[in-house]
What does this fold into?
Amino acid sequence: MVVVAVGAHPDDVEFGCFGTLAMLSEAHKIHIFIFSAGEIGGPRETRINEAKESAALIGAEVTVFGYMNGKIPVDADSIELLKKRIDALKPDVVFAPYLEDTHQGHRAVSRIVVSSCRYVPKVLFYELPQTERFEPNYYVDVTEHFEVKAKAVRCHESQEHKPYYNIEGIRGRAAARAFKVFNPGRLFEAFVLYRLIYQGE
It folds into this structure.
């Protein structure tokens, strides 16, 4: 199985789906595509290196595109850029930010994924600290992989001053998601399933 995770900035996939990626990486190759280096939040090279350090924890291949932070367009060029990667890899599942979010970069990448991944059989939206009106319908138990997720978040040392860089807060959200599906004491990541094409497997 080929797995792709897409983010607007370094650290998006760490917050949104890294526990799930860590679990999947035990048997599958992970590809991470990031549209901008998040330059508003810190030096470009620093942020790219942090993303690479994080991806290395699960043996993922990470690619950072050249868009400026805060200026990711939803246009033919950005859609085609991702579509070419998707067509080449033919992933079985793609993870992306949720469509409703207060950050324009997250919203843009979500819309790009919707257009460029029309033939991907499984598309899941993940939640971020800025996500709004998120009603998950797909849950993954990441209890055994939560510490990898926490370590991945900590790789982004340049962002530690931000209030949502709080491991206990992230753990609390994962515990709340577990409680929602009647698994108290466990830790879950939650998603909105956008598309699922059953292929008989």
